């Protein structure tokens, strides 16, 4: 899996979720295969950690 695969899978996942790209069988199969890959799962976990850290930093800054 390359960075391009991760980026495209993320983009298609989000754009199909919001109805910007049609949920065709080919697209949904690609998204399912890519988002199930260990590299994508690891990226999603890291993204969640970074988002939580960002929210905590914003909350600290707002309280200062």
- For the record, the count of structural domains works out to 1
Structural class: mainly alpha
Query: How many β-strand runs?
Result: 0
Taking pLDDT < 50 over at least 5 consecutive residues as the criterion, the unreliable ranges are: none
Give the quaternary arrangement of the chains.
single chain
Order of helices and strands: HHH
What level of helicity do the residues show? over 70%
Gross morphology is elongated
Mean pLDDT: 93
List keywords for this structure.
mainly alpha; 3 helices; 64 residues; single chain
What report would you give on this structure?
Helices cover 81% and strands 0% of the residues. The chain is an all-alpha fold and 64 residues long. The protein is elongated.
List the helices and strands and how they pair.
Elements: H1 3-17, H2 25-35, H3 38-63
Provide a short characterization of the protein structure.
By secondary structure, the chain is mostly helical. 81% of the residues lie in helices and 0% in strands.
